[in-house]
Design goal:
Number of domains: 1
Strand content: 15-25%
Shape: globular
CATH architecture: 3-Layer(aba) Sandwich
Order of helices and strands: EHEHEHEHE
Helix content: 40-55%
Radius of gyration: 16 Å
CATH superfamily: HUPs
Structural class: alpha/beta
Oligomer: single chain
Largest sheet: 5 strands, parallel
């Protein structure tokens, strides 16, 4: 195994995925890439002002930078120096495309826990990724 792709979103489950991937990377000597996918926003509707879009983009960029910095620190604390990627699009499809096009050997994502009867179900991103990924997917719990 040479390359591991980790989908991050700032959740507790994603942090577990980072720690899991870092452990695998430490054991195998694989490189780790932390990827945050920004979902596409719908085009501005009537009445949406350009300053509002600029302000939203600025907040999104700030959030993304902070999220990736925290993810990098988690990985580094586990003894692995990761690369980072910020992408835009549908999350599962974008991660699967990146894994395919850049030759990743494994994708690691967090499980999205649910309450009650649906607790046994995966989150929508993890579930979709398992269905469409051309590479093995590890869902950290």
């Amino acid at each position: 195994m040479k390359r591991i792709l980790v989908g991050v979103d700032g959740s507790r489950e994603a942090n577990l995925a980072i720690e899991t991937a870092a452990g695998i990377a430490r054991s195998t000597g694989a490189g780790v890439t932390l990827a945050y996918v920004v979902p596409r926003r719908p085009p501005p509707g009537a009445g949406q002002l350009a300053p509002d879009l600029v302000r939203a983009d600025g907040l999104e960029q700030s959030y993304t930078a902070g999220l990736l910095h925290e993810a990098e620190m988690l990985c580094s604390d586990a003894g692995v120096t990761p690369d980072t990627e910020t992408l835009t699009g549908p999350v599962a499809e974008t991660l699967a495309d990146l894994a395919r096009s850049d030759g990743y050997d494994l994708i690691v994502v967090g499980h999205r826990g649910r309450g009650g009867v649906t607790r046994v179900l995966l989150g929508s991103v993890a579930d979709r990724l398992l269905q469409i990924s051309p590479r093995p997917v590890l869902v950290a719990r």
